[in-house]
Amino acid sequence: MATLHKIGHDQGQINLVVVPDGMTTDDDQNDLVLLWDCMSNVMPSCLEELIGKIKESGDDEIAYVITDGMIRWGLEVAVKMGIRRATFWPAAAVLLASVMNVPDLIEAGSIDPNG
């Protein structure tokens, strides 16, 4: 079950949503592969369910779904639910630039496809 946290008191408030990642207390919290698999399998349906409940209640309007740039499924859920979407990249700008330019670096021969 997702948890909704409201910030602000006016129209235009931002609601932060905590969506369960699917990891159990017995899972190795440092296993990033397991974390990614759990997140990809659990979080989209939880977010979709939360959005459905908010829409059904009629209490709030969802203007945007804003996600971390690595969480592509959040954008996919927004499209599916007919909601505008936005993304941000919280990591350092140099990392974003590096990731975005890997194809160019491979093409230029600066790195090979295996890194």
TrEMBL record:
Domain of life per record: Eukaryota
Listed name of the protein: Uncharacterized protein
UniProt organism field: Persea americana
